[in-house]
Amino acid sequence: MAGNTFGNIFKLTTFGESHGEALGGIIDGCPAGITIDFDAITSEMQRRKPGQSKIVTQRKEEDEVQFLSGIFEGKTTGTPIGFVIPNTNQKSHDYSDIKDTYRPSHADYVYEQKYGIRDYRGGGRSSARETASRVVGGAIAKQIIPSIKINAYVSSVGEIALNKTYQELDFSKIESNPVRCPDEKMALEMEKYIQEIKKQGDTVGGTITCVIQNVPIGLGEPVFDKLHAALGKAMLSINAVKGFEFGSGFEGSSMKGSQHNDLFNEDGSTKTNLSGGIQGGISNGMDIYFKVAFKPVATLIQKQDVLTNKGEIIELQGKGRHDPCVVPRAVPIVEAMAALVIANYFLLKKINN
Prior knowledge:
- Helices cover 25% and strands 21% of the residues.
- It is built from 7 helices and 17 strands.
- The radius of gyration is 21 Å and the shape is globular.
- The protein starts with a strand and ends with a helix.
Protein backbone atom coordinates (compact mmCIF):
# COMPACT_ATOMS: atom_id res chain seq x y z
CA MET A 1 0.00 0.00 0.00
CA ALA A 2 1.76 3.14 -1.20
CA GLY A 3 1.15 6.70 -0.05
CA ASN A 4 2.07 6.36 3.62
CA THR A 5 5.07 8.71 3.64
CA PHE A 6 4.89 12.52 3.74
CA GLY A 7 7.76 14.94 3.07
CA ASN A 8 11.08 14.69 1.26
CA ILE A 9 13.67 16.05 3.73
CA PHE A 10 11.76 15.76 6.99
CA LYS A 11 9.74 12.58 6.37
CA LEU A 12 6.94 10.94 8.31
CA THR A 13 5.81 7.40 7.53
CA THR A 14 2.79 6.14 9.46
CA PHE A 15 1.32 2.68 10.00
CA GLY A 16 -1.56 1.03 11.84
CA GLU A 17 -5.33 0.70 11.81
CA SER A 18 -8.15 1.95 14.00
CA HIS A 19 -8.64 -1.39 15.76
CA GLY A 20 -5.20 -2.93 15.34
CA GLU A 21 -2.69 -3.45 18.14
CA ALA A 22 -1.15 -0.02 17.72
CA LEU A 23 -0.60 2.98 15.49
CA GLY A 24 2.87 4.31 14.89
CA GLY A 25 5.37 5.99 12.66
CA ILE A 26 8.94 6.60 11.64
CA ILE A 27 10.33 10.14 11.37
CA ASP A 28 13.37 10.37 9.12
CA GLY A 29 15.48 13.44 8.41
CA CYS A 30 15.16 15.03 11.83
CA PRO A 31 18.38 16.94 12.63
CA ALA A 32 20.55 15.66 15.47
CA GLY A 33 20.96 17.48 18.76
CA ILE A 34 17.41 18.79 19.21
CA THR A 35 16.23 18.60 22.82
CA ILE A 36 12.80 17.01 22.73
CA ASP A 37 10.04 18.45 24.90
CA PHE A 38 8.04 15.31 25.67
CA ASP A 39 5.43 17.30 27.61
CA ALA A 40 4.71 19.32 24.46
CA ILE A 41 4.14 16.08 22.52
CA THR A 42 1.81 14.80 25.24
CA SER A 43 -0.10 18.09 25.18
CA GLU A 44 -0.64 17.84 21.42
CA MET A 45 -1.85 14.25 21.76
CA GLN A 46 -4.29 15.26 24.51
CA ARG A 47 -5.77 17.88 22.18
CA ARG A 48 -6.45 15.27 19.49
CA LYS A 49 -7.42 12.24 21.57
CA PRO A 50 -11.02 10.94 21.69
CA GLY A 51 -13.25 11.22 24.73
CA GLN A 52 -12.09 14.72 25.73
CA SER A 53 -15.56 16.31 25.83
CA LYS A 54 -19.27 15.60 25.35
CA ILE A 55 -19.23 16.76 21.72
CA VAL A 56 -16.70 14.20 20.44
CA THR A 57 -16.51 10.41 20.21
CA GLN A 58 -16.48 8.76 23.64
CA ARG A 59 -13.84 6.19 22.74
CA LYS A 60 -11.35 6.26 25.62
CA GLU A 61 -7.73 6.26 24.50
CA GLU A 62 -4.87 7.82 26.46
CA ASP A 63 -2.77 7.98 23.27
CA GLU A 64 0.50 7.55 25.13
CA VAL A 65 3.48 7.67 22.77
CA GLN A 66 6.29 5.15 23.18
CA PHE A 67 9.51 6.18 21.45
CA LEU A 68 11.63 3.28 20.26
CA SER A 69 14.61 4.93 18.57
CA GLY A 70 16.26 8.13 17.40
CA ILE A 71 16.27 9.86 20.81
CA PHE A 72 19.03 9.44 23.39
CA GLU A 73 19.18 11.23 26.72
CA GLY A 74 16.39 13.52 25.58
CA LYS A 75 18.03 14.61 22.33
CA THR A 76 17.58 13.53 18.73
CA THR A 77 20.46 11.48 17.35
CA GLY A 78 19.86 12.15 13.66
CA THR A 79 18.73 8.56 13.09
CA PRO A 80 15.11 7.53 12.37
CA ILE A 81 12.73 8.22 15.24
CA GLY A 82 10.43 5.23 15.68
CA PHE A 83 7.32 5.38 17.86
CA VAL A 84 4.12 3.50 18.64
CA ILE A 85 0.76 4.50 20.11
CA PRO A 86 -1.03 1.43 21.55
CA ASN A 87 -4.76 1.01 20.93
CA THR A 88 -6.36 0.15 24.27
CA ASN A 89 -10.11 0.71 23.89
CA GLN A 90 -11.25 -0.98 20.70
CA LYS A 91 -14.85 -2.20 20.52
CA SER A 92 -14.70 -4.11 17.26
CA HIS A 93 -18.08 -5.79 17.84
CA ASP A 94 -19.71 -2.40 17.23
CA TYR A 95 -18.79 -2.83 13.57
CA SER A 96 -19.96 -6.43 13.01
CA ASP A 97 -23.15 -5.14 11.35
CA ILE A 98 -21.17 -3.44 8.57
CA LYS A 99 -18.95 -6.43 7.76
CA ASP A 100 -20.98 -7.09 4.62
CA THR A 101 -22.22 -3.55 3.95
CA TYR A 102 -20.75 -0.26 2.78
CA ARG A 103 -21.54 2.91 4.69
CA PRO A 104 -22.67 5.78 2.41
CA SER A 105 -19.93 8.38 1.71
CA HIS A 106 -17.36 6.28 3.56
CA ALA A 107 -14.22 4.61 2.18
CA ASP A 108 -15.61 1.10 2.80
CA TYR A 109 -16.58 0.35 -0.79
CA VAL A 110 -13.52 1.79 -2.55
CA TYR A 111 -11.05 0.09 -0.17
CA GLU A 112 -12.60 -3.30 -0.83
CA GLN A 113 -12.76 -2.72 -4.58
CA LYS A 114 -9.14 -1.53 -4.69
CA TYR A 115 -7.53 -4.17 -2.45
CA GLY A 116 -10.04 -7.02 -2.52
CA ILE A 117 -10.11 -6.97 1.27
CA ARG A 118 -10.85 -4.41 3.99
CA ASP A 119 -10.62 -4.05 7.73
CA TYR A 120 -14.21 -3.09 8.55
CA ARG A 121 -13.44 -2.50 12.25
CA GLY A 122 -13.72 1.25 12.59
CA GLY A 123 -12.69 1.78 9.00
CA GLY A 124 -9.23 0.26 9.42
CA ARG A 125 -6.56 2.39 7.75
CA SER A 126 -9.15 4.89 6.48
CA SER A 127 -10.12 5.80 10.03
CA ALA A 128 -9.27 9.25 11.36
CA ARG A 129 -7.51 7.44 14.20
CA GLU A 130 -4.53 7.23 11.81
CA THR A 131 -4.00 10.96 12.36
CA ALA A 132 -2.66 10.32 15.87
CA SER A 133 0.70 9.46 14.28
CA ARG A 134 0.62 12.70 12.31
CA VAL A 135 0.22 14.69 15.51
CA VAL A 136 3.36 13.07 16.93
CA GLY A 137 5.27 13.99 13.78
CA GLY A 138 3.89 17.51 13.83
CA ALA A 139 4.76 17.98 17.51
CA ILE A 140 8.40 17.15 16.77
CA ALA A 141 8.36 19.29 13.61
CA LYS A 142 7.24 22.28 15.71
CA GLN A 143 10.35 21.82 17.85
CA ILE A 144 12.56 22.17 14.77
CA ILE A 145 11.00 25.56 14.01
CA PRO A 146 10.30 27.04 17.49
CA SER A 147 10.25 30.67 16.32
CA ILE A 148 7.46 29.95 13.81
CA LYS A 149 4.01 30.06 15.40
CA ILE A 150 1.21 27.86 14.09
CA ASN A 151 -2.34 28.38 15.39
CA ALA A 152 -5.49 26.76 14.06
CA TYR A 153 -9.06 27.26 15.27
CA VAL A 154 -12.63 26.35 14.36
CA SER A 155 -14.11 29.11 12.22
CA SER A 156 -17.46 27.51 11.38
CA VAL A 157 -19.73 24.60 12.29
CA GLY A 158 -22.46 23.97 9.76
CA GLU A 159 -23.92 27.38 8.90
CA ILE A 160 -22.69 28.98 12.14
CA ALA A 161 -19.66 30.99 11.04
CA LEU A 162 -17.20 33.23 12.85
CA ASN A 163 -17.20 36.37 10.74
CA LYS A 164 -14.00 37.88 12.10
CA THR A 165 -10.52 38.06 10.64
CA TYR A 166 -7.78 36.24 12.50
CA GLN A 167 -6.23 39.62 13.42
CA GLU A 168 -9.32 40.35 15.57
CA LEU A 169 -8.95 37.16 17.62
CA ASP A 170 -6.99 36.17 20.72
CA PHE A 171 -5.37 32.81 19.97
CA SER A 172 -4.87 32.18 23.70
CA LYS A 173 -8.63 31.52 23.92
CA ILE A 174 -8.61 28.65 21.40
CA GLU A 175 -8.22 26.01 24.11
CA SER A 176 -10.69 27.68 26.49
CA ASN A 177 -13.68 25.73 25.15
CA PRO A 178 -14.33 22.24 23.68
CA VAL A 179 -15.11 23.60 20.20
CA ARG A 180 -11.71 25.37 19.96
CA CYS A 181 -13.20 28.61 18.68
CA PRO A 182 -11.44 31.73 20.09
CA ASP A 183 -14.69 33.71 20.23
CA GLU A 184 -16.59 32.83 23.42
CA LYS A 185 -20.05 33.72 22.12
CA MET A 186 -19.65 31.81 18.86
CA ALA A 187 -18.09 28.88 20.69
CA LEU A 188 -21.22 28.50 22.85
CA GLU A 189 -23.48 28.61 19.79
CA MET A 190 -21.35 26.02 18.00
CA GLU A 191 -21.24 23.71 21.02
CA LYS A 192 -25.02 23.89 21.50
CA TYR A 193 -25.58 23.13 17.82
CA ILE A 194 -23.23 20.13 17.84
CA GLN A 195 -25.05 18.73 20.88
CA GLU A 196 -28.38 19.10 19.07
CA ILE A 197 -26.99 17.32 16.02
CA LYS A 198 -25.65 14.52 18.24
CA LYS A 199 -29.08 13.99 19.84
CA GLN A 200 -30.53 13.56 16.35
CA GLY A 201 -28.00 10.83 15.58
CA ASP A 202 -26.72 13.02 12.77
CA THR A 203 -23.41 14.74 11.98
CA VAL A 204 -22.27 18.15 10.72
CA GLY A 205 -19.20 19.59 9.00
CA GLY A 206 -17.28 22.82 9.44
CA THR A 207 -14.13 24.76 8.69
CA ILE A 208 -10.80 25.34 10.40
CA THR A 209 -8.65 28.42 9.85
CA CYS A 210 -4.90 28.14 10.32
CA VAL A 211 -2.42 31.00 10.73
CA ILE A 212 1.37 30.59 10.46
CA GLN A 213 3.39 33.54 11.75
CA ASN A 214 7.08 34.52 11.81
CA VAL A 215 7.72 32.59 8.62
CA PRO A 216 11.08 33.45 7.02
CA ILE A 217 11.16 34.64 3.41
CA GLY A 218 12.10 31.99 0.88
CA LEU A 219 10.27 28.79 1.85
CA GLY A 220 8.91 27.03 -1.22
CA GLU A 221 10.25 25.25 -4.31
CA PRO A 222 8.88 26.35 -7.70
CA VAL A 223 7.40 25.14 -9.82
CA PHE A 224 5.71 21.90 -8.79
CA ASP A 225 6.55 22.11 -5.09
CA LYS A 226 5.19 25.56 -4.33
CA LEU A 227 4.60 26.18 -0.65
CA HIS A 228 0.84 26.63 -0.97
CA ALA A 229 0.62 23.50 -3.13
CA ALA A 230 2.37 21.50 -0.40
CA LEU A 231 0.06 22.93 2.26
CA GLY A 232 -2.93 22.10 0.09
CA LYS A 233 -1.77 18.50 -0.34
CA ALA A 234 -1.14 18.20 3.39
CA MET A 235 -4.60 19.46 4.31
CA LEU A 236 -6.42 17.47 1.65
CA SER A 237 -4.74 14.30 2.94
CA ILE A 238 -6.60 14.66 6.25
CA ASN A 239 -9.71 12.51 6.63
CA ALA A 240 -13.00 14.23 5.71
CA VAL A 241 -11.36 17.32 4.16
CA LYS A 242 -13.20 18.57 1.07
CA GLY A 243 -11.70 21.99 0.47
CA PHE A 244 -8.62 24.18 0.90
CA GLU A 245 -8.11 27.88 0.20
CA PHE A 246 -5.36 30.26 1.21
CA GLY A 247 -5.12 34.02 1.24
CA SER A 248 -8.04 35.66 -0.50
CA GLY A 249 -9.09 32.23 -1.81
CA PHE A 250 -12.19 32.02 -3.98
CA GLU A 251 -13.26 35.51 -2.93
CA GLY A 252 -10.18 36.87 -4.68
CA SER A 253 -11.48 35.63 -8.04
CA SER A 254 -14.19 38.31 -7.96
CA MET A 255 -11.77 41.18 -7.25
CA LYS A 256 -9.94 43.58 -9.51
CA GLY A 257 -6.15 43.65 -9.45
CA SER A 258 -6.24 47.13 -7.93
CA GLN A 259 -8.25 45.69 -5.04
CA HIS A 260 -6.25 42.51 -4.61
CA ASN A 261 -2.66 43.77 -4.60
CA ASP A 262 -1.21 43.98 -1.09
CA LEU A 263 -0.83 47.44 0.43
CA PHE A 264 1.79 48.69 2.88
CA ASN A 265 1.89 51.37 5.55
CA GLU A 266 4.47 54.19 5.45
CA ASP A 267 6.70 52.31 7.90
CA GLY A 268 6.79 49.31 5.57
CA SER A 269 4.42 47.16 7.63
CA THR A 270 1.64 45.24 5.93
CA LYS A 271 -1.70 46.98 5.54
CA THR A 272 -3.36 44.16 3.63
CA ASN A 273 -2.27 40.56 3.07
CA LEU A 274 -4.51 39.05 0.42
CA SER A 275 -1.55 37.05 -0.92
CA GLY A 276 -1.80 34.85 2.15
CA GLY A 277 1.92 35.16 2.78
CA ILE A 278 2.95 33.32 -0.38
CA GLN A 279 3.89 34.68 -3.80
CA GLY A 280 5.14 32.59 -6.69
CA GLY A 281 4.97 29.58 -4.41
CA ILE A 282 7.50 31.16 -2.01
CA SER A 283 6.87 32.62 1.46
CA ASN A 284 7.15 36.42 1.49
CA GLY A 285 7.54 36.93 5.25
CA MET A 286 3.92 37.88 5.88
CA ASP A 287 1.49 35.72 7.86
CA ILE A 288 0.40 32.60 5.99
CA TYR A 289 -3.26 31.86 6.51
CA PHE A 290 -5.64 29.34 5.00
CA LYS A 291 -8.96 27.64 5.56
CA VAL A 292 -9.78 23.91 5.49
CA ALA A 293 -13.31 22.55 4.93
CA PHE A 294 -14.44 19.29 6.57
CA LYS A 295 -17.47 17.29 5.48
CA PRO A 296 -19.91 15.74 7.98
CA VAL A 297 -18.85 12.36 9.41
CA ALA A 298 -20.15 9.58 7.15
CA THR A 299 -21.37 7.24 9.91
CA LEU A 300 -24.77 8.24 11.30
CA ILE A 301 -26.44 6.84 14.41
CA GLN A 302 -29.76 6.75 12.58
CA LYS A 303 -31.31 4.51 9.95
CA GLN A 304 -30.27 4.94 6.33
CA ASP A 305 -30.11 2.86 3.17
CA VAL A 306 -26.81 1.05 2.61
CA LEU A 307 -25.35 -1.15 -0.12
CA THR A 308 -24.33 -4.74 0.70
CA ASN A 309 -21.50 -6.72 -0.92
CA LYS A 310 -24.20 -8.72 -2.70
CA GLY A 311 -25.47 -5.61 -4.48
CA GLU A 312 -28.60 -5.26 -2.34
CA ILE A 313 -29.95 -2.12 -0.66
CA ILE A 314 -30.93 -2.60 2.98
CA GLU A 315 -31.77 -0.32 5.89
CA LEU A 316 -29.14 -0.11 8.61
CA GLN A 317 -28.56 2.00 11.70
CA GLY A 318 -24.96 2.90 12.55
CA LYS A 319 -23.42 1.82 15.83
CA GLY A 320 -20.23 2.64 17.66
CA ARG A 321 -18.61 5.80 18.99
CA HIS A 322 -18.33 8.56 16.43
CA ASP A 323 -17.76 12.31 16.36
CA PRO A 324 -20.92 14.28 15.55
CA CYS A 325 -18.50 16.95 14.23
CA VAL A 326 -14.81 16.34 13.56
CA VAL A 327 -13.58 19.92 13.43
CA PRO A 328 -12.83 20.46 17.17
CA ARG A 329 -10.49 17.44 17.27
CA ALA A 330 -9.07 18.24 13.83
CA VAL A 331 -7.52 21.53 14.98
CA PRO A 332 -4.27 19.92 16.24
CA ILE A 333 -4.18 17.72 13.12
CA VAL A 334 -4.27 20.78 10.85
CA GLU A 335 -1.51 22.36 12.92
CA ALA A 336 0.54 19.15 12.77
CA MET A 337 0.34 18.88 8.99
CA ALA A 338 1.22 22.57 8.62
CA ALA A 339 4.24 22.03 10.89
CA LEU A 340 5.39 19.04 8.83
CA VAL A 341 5.27 21.16 5.66
CA ILE A 342 7.01 24.20 7.14
CA ALA A 343 9.72 22.12 8.85
CA ASN A 344 10.38 20.24 5.62
CA TYR A 345 10.77 23.46 3.61
CA PHE A 346 12.78 25.09 6.39
CA LEU A 347 15.37 22.29 6.17
CA LEU A 348 15.22 22.33 2.38
CA LYS A 349 16.01 26.06 2.36
CA LYS A 350 19.19 25.34 4.29
CA ILE A 351 20.27 23.02 1.47
CA ASN A 352 19.41 25.69 -1.13
CA ASN A 353 21.67 28.18 0.58
